[in-house]
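G.,

No rush on this.
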Amino acid sequence: MNVKLLKLLAKDSRTSTENLAVMLGITEDEVKAEIADMEREGIIRGYKAVIDWDRLDSAYVSAIIELKVTPKAGFGFEEVASKIMQYPEVESVYLMSGVYDLNVVVKGKTFQEVAQFVAKELSTIESVTSTATHFVLRRYKELDVALLGSGKDERGSYSL
């Protein structure tokens, strides 16, 4: 496994295999073979564009949901995490250390849509004992890509 290749792909997955070969000092065929191997082994799970949704009219709302969960014997957190992953509103699910158990990133068209999803779907799952919802107000950096730039922070300033 070529960790340098993985880091280059994580930074910009659109880099050509020809340029990757030059950067790594290997042949283009070796780059293609390594990428194919890592895709087959499940090391590379997919390729995504990082989109600044705030710059579009079709923006959406994101929230980070903290879930406290009672794990089931023999399954731990895997069973409830697997169930939560299936919802199309769910972007990410992470097992956490600390005060809560699962961190779930959810998206929807409106604040109300996200709130309804949490109330009617997530909070009603048998193993879930509590939820705390935090709405994302602005993204500054996502997946190692800076989104801060031409957009203005509309909150203004406050001073005494």
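When you get to it, here's the other one too:
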Amino acid sequence: MATPTFYALKNTYPHAHFTLVGSKASLGIFERENVQRIEDESKKSKNRLYYLYKLGKKLGEFDLAMTLQNNFPSAWLLWASGSKIRIGYKGNARSFLLTHPLAPQKHIHQVLQYTHLLSALEIFPTHPQLQLIAHPQKKGKLTRIGVSAGAKYGSAKRWCQSYFIEVIATLLQEGYEVFMYGGNEEIEANRQIQEALRALVSTQHLHNLTGKTSISELIDSIASLDLFLTNDSGPMHIASALSVPLVAIFGSTDCKETSPFNTQAPQVILNKHLSCSPCKKRECPLKHHQCMKLITPDEVLNTIDEILQAEARE
């Protein structure tokens, strides 16, 4: 979701040198860009602020520094670098660290929250779109469906594991090729799904790529899909950027803020809009998880079938 902001800066300053600081996953999105990438491992340190202070001094002064995060440590890093212009949102006792502390933008999509920071530079993207560099894999004869059953933020965002098993089993029985995706933290959960499927159906056309791809390899694999089934997750936004048809399952998170953005492909967001959602909690605070349980496997399968039939008619 940060790519529209990055490319707006790149287009405005085509000869600039860019340094990106972030998590391994977020930096992976830009593996194919000619930029310096610095992994932020400050959460592993005993003193996070001291780690970021040293990192800021090592990076040195930039003409422009911007943080898309709203926490104190990210603004501290910008201040420690001594950069001339430091842009970010107010709040969390960090405004004094920024030269351009902007008022937070609420109840708008995350992409637009990011691009709004550019207004401090008099840059106003009119039609921001997610962008990725992809080299799609060669497709075979079978329809390829991707599945992202995880969600790094917490279990509240995850559709029921038994439901994923039922849907994938049906897709395999119907002759589709299914690809399972996820990071290292999803290896065990997706292994359980794979083992359950082996007891139900032939898994000849099931490919479990969990923890086996770099971000660039993940992008290339998703780019070759005919449809993607996912929770609200990072891979969902990759599919959106690549205009892959989507079925996205939402419950605890706000689809107004983190839904697939500006995709050119068919997309269906399944959301029961319960009175308790979006709670934005890592775990269901009411312990019933009804926002996910009420979205049934049959509803998902019917939605997948409708999208694939519509795509086949075009």
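The mean pLDDT is 94. Residues 105 and 113 are 6 Å apart (CA to CA).

Enjoy the weekend,
O.
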